[in-house]
Write a structure and sequence with these properties.
Layout (H helix, E strand, L loop, with lengths): L16 E7 L11 E6 L5 E3 L20 H8 L3 H10 L4 E5 L5 H8 L3 E6 L2 H11 L2 E4 L3 H8 L2 E7 L8 H11 E12 L4 H6 L13 E2 L2 H10 L3 E6 L3 H15 L6 H22 L7 E7 L7
Parallel strand pairs: 4-5, 4-7, 5-6, 7-8
Antiparallel strand pairs: 1-2, 2-3, 3-9, 8-11, 10-11
Helix pairs in contact: 1-3, 5-6, 9-10
The protein binds zinc ion.
Length: 303
């Protein structure tokens, strides 16, 4: 009997792909099913070969910790770098956040004077953000289908979201169409050219199988953005977010689920020490765990 084969072509560019590694849900242990990731020889993107039919089973309800307003404000302080990068490239106006989750960016955007709307797949997170922040939230796991109705927007932000969506290029296309002229799309996502992935392979925590359907090289995103009329205006893997994800990976890979508190603490300290030793490598030449990319739609006068 023929066993159905996973797609051997890249879902993004239809280029040929090869097996990259096999892993399982190491981060959340929702199942012990093996997952194959494939690498495209044309665009270098990694993708999950066979996507589980019911991905929602891999997003347990505790995926988001839902804080109240005061705690949210407090916890948003170390995340200020996200607002800083948006503020450098966008004037306050309508801002659409895709996947606000815990709301750590949303509260900053509100405080900075943006008119905030969001698209969020998790019903509990969406309800909480509506209650706590009073913002308009569309509940959907297909942001590319919702964007047009929410625009036009001065900024669209997606922090660690594009790797979760089944059709990332459709999301880019919808974002490009929804931005006002001069508006920006701000993306942060794990970096398939990370030093950590090269060293740890299937064990790299930012693979996050099977939730991460794609690991997208920055040049592939930039090329796709350009084809949609968006110009790159900023790219970094050494912003505070990127550096935090470097350390996170080394801590997390040493962690053992269910380990006692002293062992967990030891893993944390050892992970930070490894990140410090590797900092010269990980901070050089876009080899960090995650990058942040800002794409701008040209102002109307340019077109
Ligand atoms: Zn490809």
């Amino acid at each position: 009997m023929d066993v159905p084969r996973p797609a051997l072509r890249c879902p993004l560019c239809a280029g040929p792909t090869e097996h990259a590694f096999t892993t399982h849900d190491r981060n959340r242990a929702c199942s012990d099913v093996p997952f194959d990731y494939r690498r495209c020889s044309e665009c270098a993107a990694l993708h999950l070969g066979e996507v589980p039919e019911d991905l929602s089973a891999y997003y347990p309800s505790a995926y988001f910790v839902l804080p109240g307003l005061e705690e949210l404000r407090e916890r948003a302080v170390p995340e200020r770098h996200r607002m800083q990068i948006v503020a450098r490239h966008a004037e306050p106006g309508r801002l659409i956040e895709i996947g606000p989750g815990d709301g750590l960016f949303a509260i900053q955007a509100l405080d900075a004077g943006f008119e905030m709307v969001a698209i969020e797949p998790d019903p509990a997170a969406a309800a909480n953000l509506r209650d706590v922040l009073g913002i308009e939230i569309v509940e959907s796991a297909a942001p590319e289908e919702e964007l047009a109705a929410l625009g036009p927007a001065q900024a669209i932000v997606a922090w660690h979201v594009i790797e979760h969506v089944p059709r990332p290029w459709a999301l880019l296309e919808a974002a490009a169409a929804t931005l006002e002229p001069g508006g920006v799309l701000v993306l942060a996502t794990p970096n398939p050219r990370a030093f950590g992935l090269r060293v740890l392979g299937a064990r790299w925590p930012h693979v996050d199988a099977p939730r991460h359907l794609f690991l997208l090289p920055h040049d592939a995103v930039i090329a796709r953005g350009r084809a949609l009329g968006l110009e790159p205006v900023a790219l970094t893997a050494t912003d505070r977010g990127g550096l935090g994800w470097n350390a996170f990976a080394w801590r997390y890979v040493l962690r053992r689920p269910g380990a006692s508190w002293p062992r967990e603490r030891l893993a944390h300290i050892a992970g930070d020490a490894i990140a410090r030793v590797l900092a010269p490598v990980e901070r050089h030449g876009l080899r960090g765990a995650a990058y942040t990319l800002v794409l701008r739609k040209p102002p109307a006068s340019d077109s």
